[in-house]
Specification:
By secondary structure, the protein is of the alpha+beta class. The protein is built from six helices and five strands. Bound molecules: FE2/S2 (inorganic) cluster (2 copies).
Length: about 150
């Protein structure tokens, strides 16, 4: 199949790759670039474990073709943590918000996006924001507690 050369910024660094027209962004990030934080869960848009930020907006990388991100900016948790844990990540740590951690990168990015738009969300707003990020382990309460503690006025 014909290859396409794409260039995008990944966690602040330029990245140029040859990809096939049908390659998924999730697979390219994990297998070609070596960025492992986006996780392959359902691979059909249902679980949120593959979430990344594309131009600052949370999206599911299992539903995006790699060719679509040509010229765009991608952030994963590797980029968020370049200078150490963010206050949100530290809050999650303080509250033992994750057990197996499979959902954690997607959850962190989804809440990061929420806090950019709404620095003091209510419990209901947090629940609504993370409704598409499935967690099998925690029952969500420690995740919500961490965000509320961090953002309380
Ligand atoms: S792996 Fe993409 S939403 Fe589940
Ligand atoms: S901590 Fe295991 S899926 Fe969320």
């Amino acid at each position: 199949m014909k290859k396409h050369t794409i260039t995008f910024r990944l966690n602040g660094e330029p990245c140029t790759l040859d990809v096939e027209a049908n390659e998924l962004l999730l697979d390219v990030l994990r297998d070609k670039v070596g960025v492992k934080s986006p996780k392959a869960g359902c691979e059909r848009g249902d679980c949120g474990s593959c979430t990344i930020l594309l131009e600052g907006k949370s999206v599911r990388s299992c539903l995006i073709l790699a060719v679509e991100v040509d010229g765009q900016e991608i952030t994963t948790v590797e980029g968020l943590s370049r200078n150490g844990l963010t206050p949100l990540q530290q809050a999650f740590l303080n509250h033992n918000s994750f057990q197996c951690g499979f959902c954690a990168p997607g959850m962190v990015l989804t809440v990061t996006e929420l806090l950019e738009k709404n620095p003091h969300p209510s419990k209901e707003e947090i629940q609504e924001a993370i409704a598409g990020n499935l967690c099998r382990c925690t029952g969500y309460q420690p995740i919500i507690d961490a965000v509320l503690e961090l953002t309380k006025k």
